[in-house]
Structure formats: structure tokens, C-alpha cells
């Protein structure tokens, strides 16, 4: 959508005036998405699901293989590279979803209830992975109803009916 007013600056670039193609390019190259329901493609293997954003951004095949293997190793799911989503546990599926979100080395990850479909053990592992990514310089914006998950954040903004009701900066 086009803004009604103000400015929209992403990575020191004014992007409010971008056309749809430029916005799509901005998203492809700079933003990773992690969904509560994983949004993996059932007909693709773990490797292929993670590789997909690299194909969309035109990364050469040899580089794609290297980057996918690196991120699968980092997410401790390399041994599942040839499996399909329905062959994985919920925690494994979310690791694949996070791997797909980070394979392009985005500056920003938008995470919508990233632990919402997971048990507490897998949820803690996912939050630790997101914390590690943040410590390596990736900005994480997470939407959650979980007080436990919110405690991993540096900053918490509470909303009610679309309005900010409280903001905490954590140290």
C-alpha cells in the first residue's frame, strides 16, 4: 500500500515512493518471513523449500547449494535435507521455515507467532535460534501472545485494538 503521509525509510533508503516491483525486490532481498503455520511447500523437500528464495533472487546454482547447506547445518537439520515437510516434526518444520527466512541473509525478519504451533521444548529452541540471529546483526520483529517469548526481546510494544498501550525497553 502507498502511505497516506510521512515517510518510510528502510536501511537508510526512502521507499515510500517505490513501485510494486521495487517493493517486491526490497522484500526478496532484505526481509525474511517466519509464519506460525510454517508455510512450507509440501511437494518440495527441505532443501528445495530453503532454496526457493535464492532462486527468486537469481543466485547461481553452485552458490545456492553452498548457502542452503550452510543454513541447514546452522539450524541442525541437514540430516533432513531430502525429507518432505509432512515427514518432519513441528519443531523441525519451524527450523526449515527459519532457514528459508535467513538463507538470503536478510536485514530484517518478520516473525508471526513463531512458536505458536510448537511444544515448549521446540519453542525454546526456536527462540534461541532467533536470539542467535539477532546477536549476529539481524533485526527481528516478532508478533506473539506469549509472555515467555516476549522476554527474549530487547523491546516490547503492547497493542490493544491497534493502539500502543505500553512500551518497554529491556536491558
Description:
The protein has one domain (9-169): P-loop containing nucleotide triphosphate hydrolases (Rossmann fold). The radius of gyration is 17 Å and the shape is globular. With 171 residues, it is an alpha/beta fold. The protein has helices at 20-30, 46-56, 61-74, 90-102, 120-135, 147-150; strands at 9-10, 13-14, 31-34, 108-112, 139-143, 155-160, 163-169. Helix 2 packs parallel to helix 4 (90-102) and helix 3 packs across helix 4 (90-102).
**Number of helical segments with 4 or more residues:** 6
Q: For the record, what CATH class applies?
A: Alpha Beta
**Residue-averaged pLDDT, rounded?**
93
CATH architectural grouping:
3-Layer(aba) Sandwich
Largest sheet: 3 strands, parallel
Beta-strand percentage range: 15-25%
Strand order across the biggest sheet? 3-4-5
**CATH topology value:** Rossmann fold
Termini, distance in Å? Answer: 35 Å
CATH superfamily membership: P-loop containing nucleotide triphosphate hydrolases
Structural class: alpha/beta
SSE sequence, one letter per element? EEHEHHHEHEHEE
Query: How many strand elements?
Result: 7
Low-confidence blocks of residues: none
Query: Percent helix among the residues?
Result: 40-55%
**What's the Cα radius of gyration?**
17 Å
Q: Which geometry do the CA atoms define? A: globular
* Domains (count): 1
Amino acid at each position: 500500500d502507498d502511505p497516506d503521509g510521512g515517510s518510510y525509510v528502510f536501511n537508510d533508503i526512502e521507499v515510500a515512493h517505490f513501485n510494486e516491483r521495487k517493493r517486491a525486490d526490497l522484500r526478496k532481498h532484505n526481509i525474511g518471513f517466519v509464519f506460525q503455520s510454517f508455510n512450507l511447500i509440501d511437494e518440495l523437500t527441505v532443501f528445495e523449500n530453503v532454496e526457493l528464495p535464492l532462486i527468486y533472487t537469481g543466485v547461481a546454482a553452485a552458490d545456492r547449494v553452498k548457502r542452503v547447506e550452510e543454513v541447514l547445518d546452522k539450524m541442525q537439520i541437514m540430516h533432513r535435507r531430502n525429507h518432505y515437510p509432512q515427514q518432519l516434526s513441528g519443531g523441525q518444520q519451524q527450523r526449515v521455515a527459519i532457514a528459508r527466512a535467513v538463507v538470503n541473509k536478510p536485514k530484517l525478519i518478520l516473525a508471526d507467532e513463531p512458536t505458536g504451533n510448537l511444544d515448549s521444548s521446540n519453542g525454546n529452541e526456536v527462540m534461541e535460534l532467533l536470539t542467535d540471529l539477532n546477536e549476529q546483526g539481524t533485526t527481528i520483529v516478532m508478533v506473539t501472545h506469549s509472555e515467555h517469548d516476549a522476554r527474549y526481546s530487547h523491546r516490547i510494544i503492547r497493542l490493544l485494538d491497534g493502539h500502543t498501550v505500553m512500551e518497554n525497553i529491556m536491558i
